[in-house]
Design goal:
Largest sheet: 3 strands, mixed
Number of domains: 2
Strand content: 5-15%
Number of strands: 3
Number of helices: 6
Mean pLDDT: 87
CATH class of the largest domain: Alpha Beta
Helix content: 40-55%
Distance between the termini: 64 Å
Structural class: mainly alpha
Low-confidence stretches: none
CATH superfamily of the largest domain: Resolvase, N-terminal catalytic domain
Oligomer: single chain
Strand order of the largest sheet: 1-2-3
Radius of gyration: 25 Å
């Protein structure tokens, strides 16, 4: 059982390298040779297979063992753990790359079909025309932003586009 004061919960994305996450770096600074770092999932150790391997090797060099609960508590610094980690991290990275590729292909297909991507505009074409006229009459960006419930930069953008 891990004592509560020794646990670190982190909400930063796994796409950020482990040593670039403030909580992880702070935790590693407290680790000493002979300690065991327990992670819930492999992706908590890095953003891709190489990063995970590098993180585990760095901890192993400092004499810290790394156990992953999602892999049955296997010691990732052991020969079997290294092999398991390598295979699983590579598969996870492959799946992530496939997801990115499929998403990009879907976006290209949607654009080709004429679909509008992104959020719907807050300002209608009529609103935009009124804003342009009111700006010509000297109404301030701030006043228009309040009136239409948008930011000053949204109003500035409307007047730049004409």
């Amino acid at each position: 059982m891990v004592e509560a004061h020794r646990a670190v919960a982190e909400t930063i994305s796994g796409s950020t390298a482990a040593f670039e996450r403030p909580a992880f770096s702070k935790l590693v600074d407290k680790l000493e040779a002979g300690d065991i770092l327990i992670v819930t999932k492999l992706d908590r150790l890095g953003r891709n297979a190489m990063d995970v391997r590098s993180t585990v090797e760095r901890l192993d060099a400092a004499g810290v063992k790394v156990h992953c609960l999602a892999l049955g508590g296997v010691d990732l610094t052991s020969p079997a753990g290294k092999m398991t980690m390598g295979v699983i991290a590579s598969v996870a990275e492959f799946e992530r790359d496939l997801l990115i590729e499929r998403t990009q292909q879907g976006l290209i297909r949607a654009k080709a079909q004429g679909k509008r991507l992104g959020r719907p505009p807050k300002l209608s074409m009529m609103d935009r025309q009124e804003i342009a006229k009111e700006r010509l009459c000297g109404v301030s960006y701030g006043e228009l932003a309040k009136r239409y419930g948008v930011s000053r930069s949204a109003i500035q953008q409307v007047t730049r586009l004409g």
